[in-house]
């Protein structure tokens, strides 16, 4: 699923904070969920930006080759 553009995120937050429209109404106007509106408003207040966060990264091992010992099967 693609993330929402920064422009749309800014419009959503501005509608709630600057125009004093309720979260429910903003969600209906922009056809998004209420939880998304809440998340964006909180992100704007805490982080002062609306950039989408990076998606999950591949897991890597914290062990080095020296830490890994071959398992012996008896």
Search tags:
74 residues; mainly alpha
Describe it for me?
Helix 1 crosses helix 3 and helix 2 packs across helix 3. The protein has 74 residues and is mostly helical. The chain has a domain at 6-47. It contains three helices and no strands.
Rg over alpha carbons: 21 Å
- Summing up helix and strand content along with how strands pair, one would put the structural category as mainly alpha
Oligomer: single chain
Relative strand content:
under 5%
Number of strands: 0
The stretches of 5 or more residues where confidence is low (pLDDT under 50) are none
Figure out the total of helices: 3
Helix/strand order: HHH
Q: What global shape is seen?
A: elongated
Mean pLDDT comes to 86
Major beta-sheet overview: none
Distance between the termini: 48 Å
Helix share bin: 40-55%
Put the structure in a nutshell.
By secondary structure, the chain is mostly helical. It has helices at 6-17, 23-30, 34-47.
Question: Topology of this structure?
Answer:
Blueprint: H1 6-17, H2 23-30, H3 34-47
């Amino acid at each position: 699923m693609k993330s929402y553009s920064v422009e749309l995120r800014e419009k959503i937050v501005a509608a709630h904070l600057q125009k004093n429209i309720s979260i429910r109404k903003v969600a209906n106007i922009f056809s998004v969920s209420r939880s998304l509106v809440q998340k964006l408003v909180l992100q704007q207040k805490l982080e002062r930006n609306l950039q989408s966060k990076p998606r999950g990264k591949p897991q890597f091992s914290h062990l080095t080759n020296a830490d890994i010992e071959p398992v012996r099967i008896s």
